[in-house]
């Protein structure tokens, strides 16, 4: 059996290659160098999202289920449906409380930990 690297590992390798081998060779073309750095950053973000997807889905889903009195979502589609339900309730002036605010802040923090680890929400 052949063991292959998982998708996040492959994306990390691409990001590393772009940062270490490609970007330095583009000193003469700063615009292209910048776009290569953006591509490397995007690969790193997608790798991080893939690595933490299940944990973030479970954490956010458990909080939403508690807030809405619903079953814990088992898929992205179910999580999206709960988020839509929360948005609808908030628009109607319902669930405007500390528990909802804590949920929204926790979700933002979990997302930012992946997409921009240096950003501090506290």
Please provide a written account of the structure:
The chain has 122 residues and is mainly α. It has one domain (7-115). It contains four helices and no strands. The chain has helices at residues 7-22, 30-68, 76-91, 98-115. The protein is elongated and about 55 Å long. It starts with 6 loop residues before the first helix and ends in a 7-residue tail after the last helix.
Structural features:
about 120 residues, mainly alpha
Radius of gyration: 19 Å
Order of helices and strands: HHHH
Coarse shape: elongated
Span between termini: 47 Å
| Number of contiguous helices | 4
- In what range is the share of β-strand residues? under 5%
- The secondary-structure class comes to mainly alpha
* Biggest sheet overview: none
